[in-house]
């Protein structure tokens, strides 16, 4: 599923049973309460074909793959991660990685939850071999926390993780940073 986000519109291309004639996709606007609790709400999408046939269905937030986590590459790593004025959690992922896909909804929700306290970015394993080699990323998904341009000692985490465990992991790291 692909998605493009603008200031007021979310366009979604889905792999559904095709409708015979040209169709338009419209999404019901989200209220501010729905935006803040995006992971827990369901949203209704309507598919119209010449106004003759309407298909409506609900989709959960885990199906829509767009939002707060920015994908960066080697060229943006220094400015986004090393020069950041707040902690940055880097998630090394790959498109073919099943555990990465399982962890994504949790990282997306936590990215919105932490807001200005933490930036979460993802780096594609296959597209960024120099970063993979430099940071010795051997398993995916792989999390590393950076603060003040340096890797935080003991911050590496590898493998699939549930949202509560990921939140506990991040909270522990942020607490240790505020004490240090």
Automatic annotation (TrEMBL):
Q: What is this protein called?
A: Thioredoxin domain-containing protein
Which InterPro entries does its entry note? Thioredoxin-like_sf, Thioredoxin_domain
Residue limits of the Thioredoxin domain?
29-175
| Organism this protein belongs to | Brassica cretica
Which SUPFAM superfamilies does the record cross-reference, listed alphabetically?
Answer: Thioredoxin-like (SSF52833)
Pfam annotation, one family? Thioredoxin
């Amino acid at each position: 599923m692909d998605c493009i986000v603008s200031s007021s519109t979310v366009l979604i291309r889905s792999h559904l049973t095709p409708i015979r004639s040209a169709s338009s996709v419209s999404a019901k606007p989200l209220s501010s309460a729905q935006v803040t609790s995006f992971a827990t709400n369901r949203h209704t999408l309507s598919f119209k074909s010449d106004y003759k046939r309407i298909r409506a269905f609900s989709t959960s937030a885990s199906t829509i793959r767009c939002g707060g986590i920015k994908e960066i590459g080697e060229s943006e790593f220094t400015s986004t991660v090393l020069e950041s004025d707040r902690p940055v959690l880097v998630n090394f992922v790959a498109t073919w990685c099943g555990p990465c896909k399982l962890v994504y909804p949790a990282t997306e929700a936590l990215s919105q939850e932490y807001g200005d306290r933490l930036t979460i970015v993802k780096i594609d394993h296959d597209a960024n071999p120099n970063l993979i080699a430099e940071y010795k990323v051997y398993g995916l998904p792989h999390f590393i926390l950076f603060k003040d341009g340096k890797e935080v000692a003991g911050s590496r985490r590898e493998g699939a993780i549930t949202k509560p465990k990921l939140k506990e992991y991040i909270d522990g790291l942020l607490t240790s940073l505020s004490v240090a």
